[in-house]
Amino acid sequence: MTGESPVPSATAPLNLKAILGLKIKRLREAQHLTLRELGERAGLSTSYLAEIEAGKKYPKLDKILQVAGGLSCPYEDLVSTKLDADFDALQTFLNSPAVHNFPFDLFGVRTGELMKLIMRSPHEVSALLRTLNDIASQYNIGATHFLRAALRSYQELTGNYYEDLEQEADAFRRELGGRTQAGWDRDALRAWVTTHSVRDIDERLLGQRPALRTFRALRLMEPPRLLLNPRLSEFQKAFVLAREAGYHRLGLKARSQTTPPDREDSFEQVLNDFKASYFAGAFLLPRDRITHDLRAFFRLPTWQPRAFLALLDKYHVTPETLMYRFSQLMGSQFGLRAHFLKFSIESGRVRLLKQLNLSNLRIPSGIDLDEHYCRRWLSTHLLLQLAARARPHAKRPPAPIVGAQHSSFVDHPDDTFFCLGMALPESLRPELTTSLTVGFRMDEASLRTVRFAADRRLPRTILNGTCEHCPLPAAECRDRAAAPSLYQQELARAELQRELKALSTLPARA
User: Is the whole model's pTM more than 0.70, yes or no?
Assistant: First the structure.
């Protein structure tokens, strides 16, 4: 028996082990004791004390009392979870969801190795965490940004394709016995959800709460009920139902209760929400069928927008579900690593809402970036084009528009990529317009796969990330939304460095 606490890790979490180990180490070193000397005083083995200090073990009460006696300190001081003020940043990290809920193993990092690093150099790690916290505060980077960035990294690491989820969706479709053209039946899906997941589905109550008008769905726990926004299209309702089925079929416990999420507390929740959404997309757009239709679409010799829109009519899904499904299947089924972008425009402000980059190309980045995204991107171009068609007092929102183009960056003109996308009004917020784009690198392999990418009628555009960083002169870009202020600052800094270098090489006066 080593004397390790039998309390499971869920109730003796990593932060308790780390804090206790850190306190013992600091007190021991303050008294200039070696581990062997403390062991002799406390009646414990050197190896056992080393494991406690490393944050690997949390001892039983009697062993903590022995350590306290060896250090001549009160028991209460050791078991308190409060660290000294100079370790505030470290304590915040140890108490955060990043330690308790983040699956470091997905990224090849064992939690024990992380804790070993923290315990080996706590002052240095605390200083690093304080620096990162200051950067996060300055740029308004919250926990949600961190969790979503971690999810994007995981998706890009895995190619955003998951065979186990594909197979689960296929099995569920067979269970429902869908025989429609799309491969699933809405009534059967609804009946399954009310039998296995919730007691009933309400399509009135959510519409009676003005403050909740932008939520597509809300799941109440007791009794389990699913509230659907009455303004949802049948396509959107189908996705919510399929997503609800995904949570149940996949056994996902930590989850958002609203769609979209009103809060995100852990990586497990964010990952589970993603898995349920992936399941829904794979269920509504069966891999084999959509791949067959995409292959036929890609074989078209010229770009045909109507053929693109016909896929929406065939599968009865939302444009975002269709476009995101494209990005999932481009790599696994066609060997093309794609990127996915979702932009919005409201009151003239263009914002990047979602991004996923599997293509290793430069794409717009910076969620909530306080700069003006280049208006030459297909994503932003379609947004502005649709906004120009919208009439303030029109009874109906404008119809979706689609487009395709070749693009390359101004400083890398030979690195060309191809994008196709669409723009449409948001169903629950007509004043908000969104665009959805999928793109991939242009080379011989992609031209063989997507034949209409060789259509000479398609526009070819030189672009940049944001207007503030763009070197294109005004005469060459009539789409500029802001002056190249940051680019000019870069030029000024480069000139300053040249002058400093020139001065340093001048010969000294006699």
Answer: yes
